[in-house]
Specification:
Blueprint (H helix, E strand, L loop, with lengths): L3 E8 L3 H10 L5 E6 L4 E7 L5 E7 L7 H9 L2 E8 L3 H10 L5 E9 L5 E8 L7 E5 L3 H4 L12 E10 L3 H12 L4 E4 L2 E6 L2 E6 L4 H10 L2 E9 L3 E2 L9 E6 L1
Length: 250
């Protein structure tokens, strides 16, 4: 059993404005479509390594949806991230046997603007310091655009590093060991790193008052992303709709 980073989720108030702003930052943004049930719609920033950033906005109130409650309660920004499993149903059984209570699989999908229907299965973790899983039923190439749509004027090429804000590094590291096995987690006093494919996740407790407030209002989860690219750049967080994104030349 192995995983790859699938995508990062940024919740925004208004999708068209977010698309315009990310294009102004030098990203190629592709239309995604409308999710099952019509509650939300999205756009994608797909990288050469196959991972992507999802910009998601809600068409109506959705108090049952954690992303919506975070957006309305704490503002725009990162709300989640997803791993790509090999087999959702089988992998749920494996991690449950290790003591990790993943929920699912649950069906989901969206309709692309060209009418193509996409279907997937998801699994949800017991805590938000862990990723959810998104496994394709229809071919992934239909969900994640290929070719020229993965080329960005700003030189972005893929995801290098994620920073995950947690309450207790040791507790979160134990959860990741249950998810991935001990070979993927390197823990030391006050910090831990998790390796998933070519991506490193840094588990980190709050470093200052602002991060303590973020942990209180947004909960545990993704707070910062480092991209690999052809040049180094720090992106304006306001134009990035609350997302902390850095790019390093590699």
């Amino acid at each position: 059993m192995s995983f790859l980073l699938d995508h990062l989720v940024i919740a925004v108030a208004e999708l068209d404005q977010a698309v315009a702003d990310y294009r102004a930052l030098g990203f190629t943004v592709s239309p995604g479509g409308e999710h099952q049930g019509g509650v939300s719609h999205n756009a994608l920033i797909v990288f050469r390594d196959g991972s992507y950033i999802e910009l998601i906005a809600f068409r109506r109130t959705a108090p049952e949806n954690r992303w919506w409650t975070t957006l309305t309660g704490a503002g725009e920004g990162f709300v989640d991230f997803a791993f790509l499993p090999q087999d959702v149903g089988r992998d749920i059984g494996v991690v449950r046997a290790r003591g990790l209570a993943m929920e699912g699989p649950a069906p989901g999908g969206r309709a692309r603007p060209d009418g193509v229907r996409l279907d997937w299965l998801t699994a949800q973790p017991p805590t938000t310091d862990l990723p959810f899983w998104c496994g394709d039923v229809t071919p992934r190439s239909l969900r994640v655009p290929e070719g020229a749509l993965r080329v960005h004027p700003n030189g972005a090429q893929g995801v290098l590093r994620l920073r995950i804000l947690v309450k207790d590094v040791a507790v979160s590291a134990t959860r990741y060991i249950a998810l991935l096995g001990p070979h993927s987690v390197a823990a030391r006093e006050g910090a831990a790193t998790v390796t998933v494919g070519d991506v490193v996740l840094e588990l980190s407790e709050p470093r200052d008052a602002a991060e303590k407030m973020s942990l209180h209002t947004r909960g545990e989860g993704l707070v910062a992303v480092t991209l690999r690219g052809s040049r180094s750049q720090e992106f304006d967080a306001q134009r990035a709709h609350g997302a902390n994104i850095l790019m390093i030349a590699s």
